Amino acid sequence: MMPRAEYQSWYDMKRRCYNRKNISYKYYGARGVKVCKRWLTSFAAFLQDMGPKPSAAHSLDRKNNNKDYTPANCRWATRQQQSENRRSNWNIDGLTLTEAARRNGLKRKTVEKRVMKHGWLIDHAISIPARGFQYRRIKFNGVEKTITEWARDLGVARNTVKQRLDYGWSIEAALTTPARKLH
């Protein structure tokens, strides 16, 4: 008996790449995405390379969306994995933006807003916590203190230091640049 779900994935993959009437053709075939020769003519080869779907929640996914359907570039992925593996997603040190944000306890939208709206450097946008920032300890010249402690010791307003860091300043610049005086 032929595995129905895997066959449907194989069949749909080919339709997306070669059937101009397929609704998804513009995202696949029209962009030049092809199916490797081994899979194009043989469902058995596809099944041998991919194996059975791990669950009904998995579907065929290309690891690199700019490359073809090949054994090295395909996997069975969950809906969440696929949503994170989009052409529009940023790649940060081999991680998607969503994965990098999640690893640092942030939401993707928080990081996007920091970079796109506020002009933060990506490293700062991913590494600075979203809440409780004023309690975060900062190490500078071998000494670790909170922002409040640094500000008090340097005679600078805590909010000035926090805003500098929020705008992506380095720790050294945020702590050593004199505050402007208002006239």
Describe what you observe in this structure.
This protein is α+β, with helices and mostly antiparallel strands and 183 residues long. The chain folds into three domains: 4-84, no CATH class; 91-127, no CATH class; 133-176, no CATH class. The protein has ten helices and six strands, in the order αααββαββαααββααα. A two-stranded antiparallel ribbon has the order 1-2. A hairpin with a 2-residue loop joins strand 3 and strand 4 (95-96). Helix 8 crosses helix 9. The radius of gyration is 24 Å and the shape is elongated. The mean pLDDT is 84.
Topology:
Blueprint: H1 4-18, H2 37-40, H3 43-50, E1 59-62, E2 74-77, H4 79-84, E3 91-92, E4 95-96, H5 97-103, H6 108-116, H7 122-127, E5 137-140, E6 143-146, H8 147-154, H9 158-166, H10 171-176
Antiparallel strand pairs: 1-2, 3-4, 5-6
Helix pairs in contact: 8-9
| Secondary-structure element order, N to C | HHHEEHEEHHHEEHHH
Helix content: 40-55%
Sheet with the most strands?
2 strands, antiparallel
| Shape assignment | elongated
Structural class: alpha+beta
Number of domains: 3
β-strand number: 6
Biggest sheet strand order reads 1-2
Please summarize what this structure is.
This protein has 183 residues and is an alpha+beta fold. The protein has helices at 4-18, 37-40, 43-50, 79-84, 97-103, 108-116, 122-127, 147-154, 158-166, 171-176; strands at 59-62, 74-77, 91-92, 95-96, 137-140, 143-146.
Structural descriptors:
elongated; 11% strand; 10 helices; single chain; two-stranded antiparallel ribbon; 183 residues
